[in-house]
């Protein structure tokens, strides 16, 4: 079964059987449920929803289904076409819309697609709202409009430019200093939206851009998750072109990672650490990331006199805690920068602009910059779920076995040891259990993860 219905949206593989995969009928059903939910939020004469997509092969088909379903409900649609998740998030309040839908399966391979749903503020729905849409989708209470009250589709392709302008206008983005630094950068756009918008942003900042996989055709040249093992081509090109560093984003451009001038990974986890270091050096305050993110953010925050707190995994959880703690910057260790001065959503464009501002200020190479931050090493592994496996029971057993350690159970089980930690949780988007560990060396992190994989396998008899 490759149709995953969760509070964060609907995700699945294209084709196959209705209810088991992301078929046109499933797309229409969940788009219609979202339309009903939108109308329930505010009673008014006209409703408007922004719809955009990444460059996936199935994107145009899915977008047409979604838009025309909303039109059939009397909802006006702003079609921003090829876009990014953060661009659609920003477009929703700019359009004074009632919500937004981004059609992207983020880092999943090309056979996947998804409907990611936004509220009127351009932010992801919370758990209660997502559950309500799932409830509506399974009901018979979906009503469509008559022929005189259908919605209309308006095309607006200005939002890449508007997004870039907003980023360049941020007070902490030092445009002139970046221009004077004359950076040379290789961009891996994984043949999706980032291949268009990231070079546009960099060119506006006076950066010499070398494009790699920047044709938005949806044929991902490598696994689209921006991890070290998938970025060998980027590393080679950075060295070959004698570039200052390399940039890679995921297909919907809300995750960001860097490769230094030697072709070595800066570290996906350290994208947020570096950006936070820059922001906090000018505007001290608090930070938030999720429980599966590096301790280095805590260390950098405390260095600048602020406090750090971890949320449950999921952007909506991070944003909620960020608002509660009035933080100046936060995000997720997977390369997701959330900068409230811009908007409450992970945004690679904002991250790139802040990182360039930091480099221009420090006047050091990317490899030298990495050395100023605490050294932590992370292992990210997973176990495939099998039918009938009692995952909650397994996690309860782990919790019991480690009850004398520092435990956090707001999202799976996290065990904090003195020099390391492990976080075990069910994925919201894939049928797997994720096992994240962090330690003072890669070997220690890998060993810790392998030991917990063995322990879980023993408990589950798999």
From TrEMBL:
Q: Which InterPro entries match?
A: A-D-PHexomutase_a/b/a-I, A-D-PHexomutase_a/b/a-I/II/III, A-D-PHexomutase_a/b/a-II, A-D-PHexomutase_a/b/a-III, A-D-PHexomutase_C, A-D-PHexomutase_C_sf, A-D-PHexomutase_CS, Alpha-D-phosphohexomutase_SF
Q: Which UniProt keywords apply?
A: Isomerase, Magnesium, Metal-binding, Phosphoprotein
Q: Which residue intervals define the domain Alpha-D-phosphohexomutase C-terminal in the entry?
A: 395-453
Query: Taking every annotated instance into account, which residue ranges of this chain make up the domain Alpha-D-phosphohexomutase alpha/beta/alpha?
Result: 8-139, 175-263, 270-375
Q: Which domain of life is it from?
A: Bacteria
| Co-factor(s) | Mg(2+)
Please state the span of the N-terminal signal peptide per the UniProt entry: none
Under PANTHER family, the record lists:
PHOSPHOGLUCOMUTASE (ALPHA-D-GLUCOSE-1,6-BISPHOSPHATE-DEPENDENT), PHOSPHOHEXOSE MUTASE
Give the UniProt family note. Belongs to the phosphohexose mutase family.
Q: List the NCBIfam families.
A: Arch_GlmM
- UniProt name for this protein: Phosphoglucosamine mutase
């Amino acid at each position: 079964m490759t149709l995953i219905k969760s509070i964060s949206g609907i995700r699945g593989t294209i084709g196959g059987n209705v209810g088991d995969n992301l078929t046109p009928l499933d797309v229409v059903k969940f788009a219609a449920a979202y339309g009903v939910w939108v109308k329930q939020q505010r009673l008014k004469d006209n409703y408007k929803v922004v719809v955009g997509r990444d460059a996936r092969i199935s994107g145009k088909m899915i977008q047409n289904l979604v838009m025309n379903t909303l039109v059939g409900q009397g909802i006006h649609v702003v079609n921003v076409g090829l876009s990014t998740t953060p661009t659609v998030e920003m477009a929703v309040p700019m359009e004074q819309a009632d919500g937004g839908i981004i059609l992207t399966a983020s880092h999943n391979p090309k056979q996947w697609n998804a409907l990611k749903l936004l509220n009127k503020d351009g932010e992801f729905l919370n758990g209660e709202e997502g559950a309500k849409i799932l409830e509506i989708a399974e009901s018979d209470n979906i009503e469509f409009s008559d022929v005189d009250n259908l919605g209309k589709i308006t095309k607006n392709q200005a939002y890449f430019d508007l997004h870039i302008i907003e980023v360049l206008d941020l007070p902490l983005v030092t445009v002139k200093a970046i221009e004077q630094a004359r950076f040379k950068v290789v961009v891996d756009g994984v043949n999706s939206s980032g291949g268009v918008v990231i070079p546009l942003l960099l060119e506006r900042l006076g950066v010499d851009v070398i494009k790699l996989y920047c044709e938005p055709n949806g044929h991902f040249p490598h696994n689209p998750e921006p991890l070290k093992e998938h970025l060998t081509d980027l590393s080679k090109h950075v060295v070959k072109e004698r570039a200052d560093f390399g940039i890679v984003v995921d297909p919907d451009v809300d995750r960001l990672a860097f490769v230094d001038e030697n072709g070595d990974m800066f570290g996906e986890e350290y994208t947020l650490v570096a950006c936070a270091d820059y922001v906090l050096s000018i505007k001290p305050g608090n930070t938030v990331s999720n429980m599966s993110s590096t301790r280095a953010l805590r260390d950098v925050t405390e260095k600048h006199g602020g406090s750090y707190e971890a949320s449950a995994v999921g952007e909506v959880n991070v944003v909620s805690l960020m608002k509660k703690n009035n933080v100046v910057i936060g995000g997720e260790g997977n390369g997701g920068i959330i900068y409230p001065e811009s908007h409450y959503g992970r945004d690679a464009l904002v991250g790139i602009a802040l990182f360039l501002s930091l480099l221009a200020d420090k006047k050091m190479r990317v490899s030298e910059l990495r050395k100023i931050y605490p050294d932590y090493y992370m292992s990210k592994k997973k176990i495939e779920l099998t039918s009938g496996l009692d995952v909650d029971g397994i996690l309860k057993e782990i919790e019991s076995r480690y009850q004398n350690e520092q435990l956090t159970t707001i999202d799976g089980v996290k065990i904090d040891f003195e020099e390391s930690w492990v976080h075990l949780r069910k994925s919201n988007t894939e049928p797997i259990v994720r096992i994240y560990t962090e330690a003072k060396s890669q070997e220690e992190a890998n060993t810790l993860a392998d030991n917990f994989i063995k322990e879980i396998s023993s408990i589950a008899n798999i």
